[in-house]
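Handout, section B. The chain below has 138 residues.
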Amino acid sequence: MNLVIDTNRLLAAILRDSTTRKIIYSKKLRFVVPEHATAETLKYKRYIEEKAGLTDEEFTTIFSQILFYVDIIPKSMLQPYMDKADYLMKDMDLSDSPFVACALATKSDGIFSEDKHFEKQDKIKVWKTKDLLKFTQK
């Protein structure tokens, strides 16, 4: 199964060796992310290091390990899908349109997210941690 992963799930995976990290490392799933999500994640680097008690080196190691399991989709590949993504997210959060565009561009099976606003659109399936945990344990 191919899924887009949102920034909050990336942050959760870095913060601790959690269920989210185990899901990302699963061989049953393939994850993609719009390229801006890596920069967005790095904006929170200091916060994550403080909250998780990580050094710069530990943060870099964990983030690199996670990105090994995630394909980064360039903005140029998303551009043709942005108008449709903006339309789908217009009443929710337009800053998340790139994740929807990524799902459309890569023909993903959905978005891995805990954000409720993704559920307000009906074009892209939203996968929660509990759903993917069940899927990976089969």
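Note. DSSP finds nine helices and five strands in the chain. Compare this with the example in section A.
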